[in-house]
Amino acid sequence: MRTMIEKILRGYGKSLVLCRDGRQYSVKGFLQPVTGKSEQYARLQPGVTGLENSSRYIYIGPVDPEAMQGDEIVAGEKHYLLRHAQVICEGAEAVYVWGMCVEKGGTPKWEMNGYR
């Protein structure tokens, strides 16, 4: 399963830079605005994937290097702070990392399952 996901990330993922403790890692992954069709989402705006929440972003990336809470992700000119990250497993195999980000600089704090 991990091999299949890594192939998808390499083929379709966006070039990103994962920054931690002064080190930079080039990765391929997905970084997309949170979408929804409900009025419960704040700051919604139309986008190519539906209604987009401009303050939260979903990150999906490789297990190696493993993205962790507090890491910075750079996509082009924009910088994002990883507020929550977890390794998704299939059985005992680590398959990919899923996370939630906010754009750095002036983004209001938000909580998700107790994470800030």
If you had to describe this structure to a student in words, what would you say it looks like?
A hairpin with a 2-residue loop joins strand 5 and strand 6. The C terminus is likely disordered. The chain is built from one helix and seven strands, in the order αβββββββ. Strands 1-2-4-7-6-5 form a six-stranded antiparallel β-barrel. The chain has about 120 residues and is mostly beta strands.
SSE ordering: HEEEEEEE
State the shape.
globular
Overall pLDDT confidence: 82
Query: Structural class of the helix and strand makeup?
Result: mainly beta
Residues in helices, as a percent range? under 10%
Key words describing this protein structure:
single chain, 116 residues, mainly beta, six-stranded antiparallel beta barrel, 7 strands, globular
Give the topology, please:
Blueprint: H1 2-12, E1 14-20, E2 23-35, E3 44-47, E4 50-61, E5 72-75, E6 78-90, E7 93-103
Antiparallel strand pairs: 1-2, 1-5, 2-4, 3-4, 4-7, 5-6, 6-7
Brief digest:
This protein has one helix spanning 2-12, and strands at 14-20, 23-35, 44-47, 50-61, 72-75, 78-90, 93-103.
